[in-house]
Design a protein that fits this description.
The chain is an alpha/beta fold. The chain is built from 11 helices and 13 strands. It folds into 2 domains: about 210 residues, Alpha-Beta Complex (Spore Coat Polysaccharide Biosynthesis Protein SpsA, Chain A); about 120 residues, no CATH class. The strands form 2 sheets. Strands 1, 2, 3, 4, 5, 6, 7, 10, 11 and 12 form a 10-stranded mixed β-sheet that branches. The protein is globular.
């Protein structure tokens, strides 16, 4: 448990519809808040002027362009004068006690404490309780879309990963492993940071008694019931998953995981074709290859600090699929078959991983 003062940093882009709900909740947070910051990524919707008028206690930092949430979060970490930073996206509404409960969970070796996220549009349903690393190069979200009443909000538990829309972070630990990789722009940047923290021996906690409510998400990126899968998301998923693998997995691990990686890649290609996104998929792969040299350099830097091998971090458990993608008997059956095939291979491949 710690009583350290905290910097609260809200990352904003075109947040005029979200900030009127988020900032009063940030103002109401219980706990030792040293400073409140808003980092804006070139918004043109008047949200920055509104914050300056309505919430003058926020120090506003303008990046001047939309460099992506990874860059905005890194700027917040560099600007913070405290070791602990509560990072929040502009569409996150925290409960008053959430900061205090995250602080209570912080202890030796902990780099991140993440709250339970619930869907703001349906507060009876969990969005996630942290995540685990699936060896296919993905986050496997815990409690994804489960009813709140079916899961007790118990004590903090150790997890592999934290989703960056809301997390209490040890800025020194994060910056030591490179912070958020800005080349991702969005998608996989939190998985990448989580992996590097865990590989270097740091702990990540899910704190289900600390709760935040996630609103509509980022237009064109976030998945919600009734929304489609945008070509931009196909491109980023295609590129960033490859970038994540190159930056973090040992060569031996990639070889050991190859059957599962190729199976998932084939499904990703089929999904892109079915949605008319082949061009976005191919463009993502092409850009990933262009980043290969810098990715391998980052990989060498991680290896110099690594304390845990890949096989100690990776799992072959469930895949996170949005509920609307599992509708219908055929889709549910395919989902189960793919999960079993991936898990079956990892029962063997994990022994060969680095």
């Amino acid at each position: 448990m710690t009583e350290e003062a905290v910097t609260v940093a809200v990352v904003n882009y075109q947040g005029a519809t979200h900030l009127p709900a988020a900032l009063p909740a940030v103002r109401a947070l219980e706990g030792p808040v040293a400073e409140r910051i808003l980092v804006d990524s070139g918004s043109t919707d008047g949200s920055v002027d509104w914050v300056r008028r309505s919430f003058p206690e926020f120090r506003v930092i303008e990046l001047g362009a939309n460099l992506g949430p990874a860059a905005a979060r890194n700027r917040a970490l560099r600007e913070a004068k405290t070791r602990l930073v509560l990072l929040l996206d502009n569409d996150v509404v925290p409960e008053p006690a959430s900061l205090r409960r995250l602080l209570a969970a912080f202890g030796p070796g902990v780099a991140v404490a993440s709250p339970r996220a619930l869907l703001d549009a349906d507060r009876s349903r969990i969005h996630y309780d942290g995540a685990h690393f699936h060896y296919a190069g993905l986050f496997s979200l815990r409690r994804f879309y489960e009813p709140v009443g079916s899961v007790e909000a118990g004590d903090p538990v150790e997890v592999d990963g934290a989703i960056a829309l809301a997390l209490l972070l040890d800025r020194e630990a994060a910056l030591e492993v490179g912070g958020f990789e800005e080349r991702y722009f969005i998608l996989f940047e939190d998985q990448d940071l989580s992996y590097r923290l865990r590989a270097t021996g740091r702990r990540i906690l899910s704190v289900p008694q600390a709760r935040v409510f996630h609103r509509a998400g980022t237009e064109g990126f976030s998945l919600r019931p009734g929304t489609g899968y945008a070509p931009r998301r196909t491109f980023l998923h295609s590129r960033n998953r490859c970038l994540f693998l190159m930056r973090n997995y040992r060569t031996r691990t990639i070889l050991a995981a190859a059957p599962g990686l190729l199976l998932y890649e084939a499904l990703s290609l089929a999904f892109a074709l079915a949605n008319g996104h082949l061009g976005a998929y191919v463009r993502g792969k092409r850009e990933a290859l262009a980043l290969a040299r810098s990715a391998r350099r980052a990989h060498r830097e991680l290896e110099a600090r690594r304390r845990l091998p890949d096989r100690a971090l990776l799992r072959g458990g469930p895949l996170t699929i949005t509920p609307q993608a599992r509708t219908g008997v055929v889709r549910r059956l395919l989902h189960r078959l793919v999960e079993r095939a991936l898990a079956g291979w990892w029962a063997v491949g994990r022994r060969l991983a680095g």
